[in-house]
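Hi V.,

You were right to ask for the full record rather than a summary. Here it is.
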Amino acid sequence: MPKNPTWLRTRRILSVTALAALVTGGAFLGSGTASAATTLANQCTGSVSGSMGDTVALPGSSVSALAKQAAASKQQTLLWIIPLNGVNPDGVANALSAKTLTVGTVPSSSGGAIDGKSIGNAVGQALQGNAALGYSADTKKQVLDAITSSVTSNCGLTTLATNYTPPTSSSTPPSSSSPSTSTSPSNSEGGPLANLIPGSAGTAPQRDYNGIPTATPGTAVAPGIRYPANGTLPGSAAPVTGGQDTQSQGPDVLNAGNAESLATSGGASDIQLPMLLAVIVLAGVTAGLVRTWALRRAS
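Predicted structure:
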């Protein structure tokens, strides 16, 4: 048979292509197997640690005791209705111990939870249609429901990611020395502290004493001018000395108590009785003192 160079060249190309496909496929398969990791928990309660995305599995032996107890309790209940129900609690426990249950994954965060319902559903799938659950389909369903309910109420896992790194904040806090327009008081509000910024060092403005009256050095004001004879100070109202003010309020408000002078209606030069008595008493006392002094001088 004559050799055909074209056919030989084609065969070489096909051989190289098949070899490359085999190597590439093996690489893909190898990488897929390496990336799929499974974290096995020892029991159906507590916490389990693993890398983010890892599959969390549970040995069937960790829940076999719960399944056996639930199956035995349901078997006793069914004996009153179906004496030969075919439920085998030991067979349920043995069948479950031979399996590995996939119950969830490790989340892409610091941690998460796998609730009891997920574990109960995994147990139900592992025992689905098992002969140890009973003879009839109805019996199997009742026993399986009792087992999943018991596992759901007694199990639950907390997952912890060992390779989780919390995100870092890229925003930088504002500097305390830079003024902030949102916190600085507006100049339109007024007040002595309107221009001060909270958090900054500042001083209050000096007080204004221009409105306080002061004496002028070297100038004396006569008392008559400072305190007028009519008793009225500049800028004040004249005092009310009695009588009724028909323009404002009544005398019961302006002259509380209705005080009146005790002086008589006589003239200013008349000598009143109290003054006369005081002069007589003073004269008697003076005469007594003079007599005493004179007697002591004579003796």
